[in-house]
UniProtKB/TrEMBL annotation:
The chain crosses the membrane at residues 12-31, 51-76, 83-102, 114-133. The lineage of its organism: Bacteria, Pseudomonadati, Bacteroidota, Bacteroidia, Marinilabiliales. Keywords: Cell membrane, Membrane, Transmembrane, Transmembrane helix. It is found in: Cell membrane. It comes from Labilibaculum filiforme. Pfam families: DUF2179, YitT_membrane. This is Membrane protein.
Amino acid sequence: MEIKRAVLKSKFDFQSYLIITLGLVVGSFGWTGFIIPAEIVGSGVGGIATMIFYITGFKVGYSVFLINTVFLLLALRVLGFGFGVKTIYGIIVLSFFLWLFQSLITEPLVSDRFMCAIIGGILAGASAGMILSRGGSTGGTDILAMMINKYKNYSPGQLLLTIDVLIISSSYFLEGSIEQVVYGFVTMGVSAYCVDLIIEGSKQSVQIFIFTRKPDEIRKEVVETLDQGITVLSGTGGYSGKEVKVLMLLAKRRESQSILNMIKLVDPDAFISLGSVMGVYGKGFDKIK
């Protein structure tokens, strides 16, 4: 059982890193295929790196890596070792794919600048949503906002918005063009909308009822292996009249397949009912606002 438990955990971690990597690829393609060729300055470290590229020709991938490395070293000193492996992984992989795609894509994929802003924003937002939904991060201005928040009582969300507005607004000084600034804000708005869309989708929850002859074994696996809460209900079989234990748990939809696989390993004959729920509020889920 210990081996099976390790396999399940490894599989879940692999899926998370796979989706984070896919998100990084999508985001890199959005920047290098649409935003950068159209000379649009987006938000975050990508926007800073893009301006450096327009002024000096220094590739975006290199700038993103160097800026993020500086932020990361400062954050480790100021905030401690709280960023985890996924943030470092995100920074390295993003920098690599930005460098790779910028080397391969030498011509704009779309000639219309407004379409570049829309498509680039969609891809950048989808990328961020995928990464955040799996607990990943690409560092950047997120780290800067957290460092400022430690010493000043400012909301991280407000700080990020302020930083992004300053970055995009400063693109005016590249060409003296209001049009360029507007395209930057269009990209930021579309990206933010797509992030919310994907994050909200990833928050969808399911309710699972498990009817099994091995309630203790399944309960133990759910709690210890998946680090998931579970409730044990007492019931009576309608046909047999015997007392039975029914297990009930709430989980994120993306976690449901791992739970089903685990149940199948412990009790292949278990009867399972799975249904969507409108909302779940409490620890580990949404907060009542």
